[in-house]
Specification:
InterPro entries: DNA_brk_join_enz, Integrase-like_cat_sf, Integrase_catalytic. Helix content is about 45%, strand content about 10%. By secondary structure, it is mainly alpha-helical. β4 (about 160) and β5 (about 165-170) form a beta hairpin. The longest helix is centred in the N-terminal third of the chain and has 15 residues, at about 60-75.
């Protein structure tokens, strides 16, 4: 909450953490007749992501950036747009090829691997040693962007002006959302039903479709609440399950 944090910074004593206030807020939310809507009406699953990537399948600097941004955001479990805009080069740590890959006999190819150190996020503290892994195609796209754009320090994803010139300023969270919506429109889809949060819900939906366990998916997504993560996960499982297909 905003007010408890502001009160603490100003050195004042507040009562925002009082148990009675927390209980009252929970009861007020439950009593509300207004259903809680999702931040993105539609999830961006792997099939939709593939369409968006085709929309930026060019060799211009802006195409390289948007491809790397979309792949990085999705493959890192749909990082929040604030985390993507704030991503810095020093957070990227090369790993041994194939690190974290499944131990299956048919998985022979060693894929490039990269760790993203998260630092402070909505669900982790700055001193927490939290990270997520990128493996394969997202790593290649991210490295190609960094090399072509000459990113040697600071923000990874930066603004590009209308003439295709790279600026020093990092993207804002709002810009990340606008980039996604622009690519959605170029792909012939409706921007009104997609937002950057759709990458996060889409990642969890995709893990459920592929039979990846919820704990394993949460290890990558860094969700603290099983209930919150399971909302997206369970929706996909129900659609694929037999309970809803008793008569079709």
């Amino acid at each position: 909450m905003f007010w408890p944090t502001l009160t603490k910074w100003r050195g004042l004593v507040g009562h925002f953490n009082a148990p009675g206030l927390h209980s009252a807020l929970k009861l007020a939310v439950r009593a509300s007749a207004r259903p809680r809507g999702r931040k993105s009406q539609k999830a961006i699953t792997a099939d939709i992501l593939a369409v968006l990537l085709k929309a930026c399948d060019g060799e211009k600097l802006v195409d390289l950036r948007d491809r790397a941004l979309l792949l990085t955001a999705f493959a890192s479990s749909g990082r929040r747009r604030s985390e993507i805009s704030a991503l810095r080069l020093e957070q990227l740590v090369d790993q041994a090829p194939g690190a974290g890959r499944p131990k299956r006999s048919w998985w022979r190819k060693k894929l490039p691997c990269l760790a993203i150190k998260l630092g402070r996020t909505k669900t982790t503290q700055a001193d927490a040693d939290a990270f997520v892994l990128l493996v394969g195609r997202p790593v290649l796209a991210l490295k190609e962007w960094n090399e072509r754009a000459g990113i040697v320090d600071g923000a990874v994803f930066k603004k590009i002006d209308r003439w295709g010139h790279l600026e020093r300023r990092a993207l804002t969270p709002q810009a990340v959302n606008l980039i996604l919506k622009r690519r959605v429109a170029q792909a012939g889809l409706d921007p009104a039903v997609f937002s950057a949060h759709g990458l996060r819900s889409g990642y969890l939906t995709e893990t459920a479709r592929r039979g990846i366990s919820l704990p394993e998916a949460m290890q990558q997504s860094q969700h603290r609440s099983v209930q919150q993560a399971a909302r997206y996960y369970n929706d996909a499982e129900r659609q694929l399950g037999r309970a809803a297909r008793v008569i079709i």
